[in-house]
Design a protein that fits this description.
The protein is α+β, with helices and mostly antiparallel strands. Helix content is 60%, strand content 9%. It has four domains: 7-98 and 245-323, no CATH class; 142-211, Alpha-Beta Plaits, CATH 3.30.70; 355-444 and 549-612, no CATH class; 463-547. The strands form two sheets. Strands 1, 2, 7, 8 and 9 form a five-stranded antiparallel sheet that branches. It has a four-stranded antiparallel sheet with strand order 4-5-3-6, covered by helices on one side.
Length: 631
């Protein structure tokens, strides 16, 4: 639980013809992660199945495109499994190609209908500009030999001035429709030298020309009726094509689901990629298996393979830990916490698995900051009712609600009421300094545990020097604790103490010396960098510890918000009182609940994870029976 599962680097030697069956068996077990090894590139120079992979990827691509048109049933486990031959895969790929051609013809037809529908929309919008004209619009198309014609719209306030201006040039202006402070007009006049002058005047007046598409070649009422009839025909044609597509789906759905199952069976062999190699009839598969799963893998391969095989398992050396995938076992309770841990990064192989530590500390801090029996109960109820949406995060929300309810009992708070029952521990506002000191102690304990985890991780990686002298190493944590001890003694007695002072000075000197040796630069620059980094280490511990004061601050803030809600409620009285209480509690639940969650995650990520593991490990990704492209 606290460490990734021990892994073995395995080499499975077998006949090349048995590679697909072995891959399928390993995928059924779900405990083998393929990984190529350079040491076997020369002895086994060939990577089998290149054409098989091409067929698989093409078939998957076609199936994915087909599924945008034909909905398939959810994938179900297939028992028994079978090995898909290259001939079967090729046949299925060709058939999927034929199905895709049928689907693409439907898609092309729908695209054409959609384009026609958009054209109709544009024509109808254009026709709106001419609905008041009771003339054949075809008469307004094109240029005239002796007549200069302009159709358009301009701001209504400019119409009188424009009418006066163009009258001087022997032009006429007719308005036929007004809307939204704009007037639709027709301007007529003789062709001649004044056309350019007219264009300048129209531009000054804010005239916007309206083009008449050639499709509008009749009176507006008649054109509108024609467009409406065409829209009906399009709708009928679209309905016919949809019914035809549904019929096609009903006809092919079973075969498509069978093709999908075939691709699921083919994927493991494809996913091996260059982890499977061969020389002639002899083949190998290389990768990683959890040590505890080796007997089960050997037993399963013995049952599934007709020919002999041999498994060689090696324990990775410490220098090769960076190549080993990290297998973090999870269950229904820890899955959500593991997901949040991975958002920061995957621990390296051999490092402490932070999932359980993260789960316990996060739940505890959430309850400390959001302690209320009623609010916790609401979180639990909401999480349970929304479990279908929350899925694996349901236990996460339920645990947070339980923690809030537990600390609500300790604080004596129920929906903000603190007089309904006595606090088992303390009401936060009764002694704010005590709450702050408790948060400080929590932060100190958290920092010590995190530093111990860092020391462990560095020792596991063989970095003894860093475990002793680095920022979070033995020397640093000793400096931190000695300074804390001296400050506590100073607070109690007025004296820092000889022993804490001696230890602090010694640790400072050792830390400074390490930084001095580790820094590669000119002597003056080295001294400056070492001094700054030593000072930064000490202040970093102090600032990170003080960050945990927010745990107490939010517990006090939770109570203060409840007091504010009740103060407002008391000002209203009657029904308004209870409405304000309910609304105020909802406000606290939603807003402060979200803020507290973010703050708890911040403390975990920045004061915790950033100190003891890098998060640059490689996650264990086993072969599985699942549809999709092999990576």
């Amino acid at each position: 639980m606290f460490k990734p599962l021990p892994m073995k680097q395995v080499v499975i030697q077998l006949l090349a013809d048995d590679l697909p069956r072995a891959a399928l068996t390993l995928a059924e077990l779900g405990v083998f992660s393929p990984s190529s090894q350079e040491a076997f590139t020369e002895p086994f120079p060939d990577v089998p199945g290149s054409h098989y992979r091409e067929l698989y990827h093409q078939a998957c691509s076609r199936l994915q495109k087909i599924e945008t048109h034909i909905r398939l049933a959810p994938v179900l486990p297939v028992i028994p499994t079978w090995v898909v031959s290259e001939a079967e895969l090729a046949t299925s790929n060709d058939w999927l190609g034929e199905v895709w051609e049928r689907c693409s013809s439907f898609e092309e037809h729908f695209r054409r209908l959609t384009d026609e529908e958009q054209t109709l929309n544009q024509l109808e919008q254009t026709l709106e500009n001419f609905t008041s004209l009771n003339i054949d619009l075809s008469l307004l198309h094109g240029d005239r030999l002796f007549l200069d014609l302009h159709i358009g719209m301009l701001p209504s306030v400019n119409v009188p001035k424009l009418r006066e201006a163009i009258t001087l040039a022997d032009y006429l202006l007719f308005s036929y429709m007004e809307n939204s402070n704009h007037t639709h007009v027709i301007i007529l006049g003789p062709k001649g030298e004044r056309e350019q002058e007219l264009l300048s005047v129209l531009d000054t007046a804010g005239f916007h020309a309206l083009e008449i598409p050639p499709e509008l070649d009749n009176q507006p009422q008649k054109v509108s009726a024609d467009l409406l009839q065409r829209r009906r025909e399009l709708a009928e044609e679209k309905t016919e094509r949809l019914l035809a597509m549904q019929a096609c789906g009903d006809e092919l759905r079973t075969q498509l689901e069978q093709a999908r199952q075939l691709l699921i069976m083919a994927k493991p062999y494809v996913a091996l990629e260059d982890a499977a190699r061969n020389r002639g009839n002899l083949g190998i598969i290389t990768g990683w298996i959890p040590e505890r799963e080796l007997p089960r893998v050997a037993t399963a391969l013995t049952k599934s393979l007709d020919n002999p095989f041999h498994i060689t398992a090696h324990t990775p050396s410490r220098s090769h830990h960076h190549e080993v995938p990290t297998y973090l076992p999870v269950n229904w309770l820890t899955r959500a916490f593991s997901t949040l841990v991975k958002q920061y990064g995957v621990p390296r192989y051999g490092e402490i698995n932070p999932t359980l530590i993260f789960a316990l500390s996060f739940i505890a801090m959430f309850g400390m900051m959001f302690g209320d029996v009623g609010h916790g109960a609401v979180i639990i109820t909401t999480a349970w009712l929304g479990r279908k949406r929350l899925k694996s995060f349901t236990p996460f929300a339920v645990c947070a609600g339980l923690s809030a309810s537990l600390f609500g009992l300790l604080y004596g708070s129920l929906f903000g009421y603190e007089h309904l029952f006595h606090a088992i521990w303390i009401a936060p506002l009764s002694d704010p300094l005590y709450m702050l000191s408790m948060a400080l102690y929590w932060g100190i304990g958290f920092m010590v545990i995190i530093s111990l985890l860092y020391i462990h991780n560095r020792l596991v990686s063989g970095e003894v020097t860093h475990a002793l002298f680095d920022t979070n190493g033995v020397v640093s944590i000793s400096l931190y604790l000695s300074v804390l001890a001296g400050l506590y003694r100073l607070y109690q007695t007025g004296h820092f103490g000889l022993l804490p002072a001696a230890i602090s000075i010694l640790m400072l000197v050792l830390l400074f010396a390490f930084k001095l040796i580790e820094t590669h630069a000119a002597p003056g620059e080295r001294m400056l960098v070492a001094t700054i980094e030593t000072f930064e280490t000490l202040t970093g511990y102090i600032s990170n510890t003080l960050s945990f004061l927010r745990v107490a601050a939010f517990s006090l803030n939770h109570v203060a918000l409840a007091i504010a809600v009740f103060t407002l409620a008391d000002m209203l009285g009657g029904t308004g009182h209870w409405l304000m209480v309910v609304a105020g509690n909802l406000f606290i639940l939603i807003l402060e609940g979200a803020i507290v969650t973010i703050q708890a995650l911040r403390l975990e990520y920045y004061e915790g994870f950033s100190r003891f593991y890098s998060g640059d490990g490689e996650e264990f990704k086993p072969l599985t029976l699942a549809v999709g492209r092999a990576k």
